[in-house]
Structures are given as C-alpha cells and as structure tokens.
C-alpha cells in the first residue's frame, strides 16, 4: 500500500478538464471550405482565453489560457487543474492544427496521482477564434489508463491592448 489517498472517478473528472482542453481521438470533421476566408490567419500562435466543455460534465465549463508559440510549443493553465500543461502543436492546413499536451496531477500533499494526456484537433473559425475537439486520458505511474474523457474547446485570441 502506498499510503496515498485513492483516486476517485469524480476527482479524475474534476482534474481532467484542462487536460481535456486538449485531447482528441477523432478529428473535427467540418470541411476546410473557409480556408480562403482567413488567408492571413497565421495559425494559432499567440495567447488565447479558452472555455473547455467536457462531455462527462454537462453544463459545466472550465476556463483556461493557452499560449501557442510560433516554434510549435504550447503552454496551458487551467482553473480546475491548477497545473501548467506543456505540449506541442502543428498546422495541418491553412485553418487547421493539432495539439497535444500533458500535465501532472498531484494530491493535496504533492504526491503524484496521474498524468493527463490530451490530443485535440483545432480549426481557426476567424483570425481571433478557434474551436477544437479531442480527448484527455488520465494515466497512472504504471501506464494504466484510469479514465478517458472527450472535450470541446472554444477560444478567443487576446493581445496586448485587450484588457
């Protein structure tokens, strides 16, 4: 026995929001017909205010901030997880991109509980907005899958002059 408190399904669902803000098992399937509408969108590089909806928690949304670096790096901070997630992204077309991220989850004493692994596929819907769909999976230290959830993200880009 490790002496650690057991991880409950509810705790996993509460902590997986940010994680899920990111993960995808199926792609956003809408056609890329509006690529011509945003030819200078420049991809997702920049700072974003995000709302995450998790299928298993209907009616609840989680707020987060995403920072997509021009070099393909991704940093994520969420309210529920209160952890920083690190990841990568790449463009898949003029208006589409994929991102993956991971963050560590600990108990109240700082002991490792699980890692959340997220994969999402996103679509720029304007130069200042994107949506994504994906899944997040909680994995324990032995690699055992504890829980997988689906999530959607709605994001709005913000800049230096936005207060």
Q: What does the model show?
A:
It is a single chain. The chain has 163 residues and is mainly beta. Helices cover 7% and strands 50% of the residues. It has 2 helices and 8 strands. It has helices spanning 9-15, 17-20; strands spanning 46-54, 61-68, 73-78, 84-91, 96-106, 112-126, 129-139, 145-158. An 8-stranded antiparallel beta barrel has the order 1-2-3-4-5-6-7-8. A hairpin with a 6-residue loop joins strand 1 (46-54) and strand 2 (61-68). The longest helix is centred in the N-terminal third of the chain and has 7 residues, at 9-15. The protein is globular. It starts with 8 loop residues before the first helix and ends in a 5-residue tail after the last strand. Residues 1-7 and 16-41 have low confidence and may be disordered.
Binned, the helix content reads under 10%
- Number of DSSP E strands: 8
Strand content: over 45%
Query: Which consecutive residue ranges, at least 5 long each, have pLDDT under 50?
Result: 1-7, 16-41
Q: Radius of gyration from the CA trace?
A: 16 Å
**What global shape is seen?**
globular
Reading the helices and strands in chain order gives HHEEEEEEEE
Average pLDDT, all residues: 80
Sheet with most strands: strand arrangement: 1-2-3-4-5-6-7-8
Structural class of the secondary structure composition? Answer: mainly beta
Distance between the amino and carboxyl termini: 50 Å
Number of helices: 2
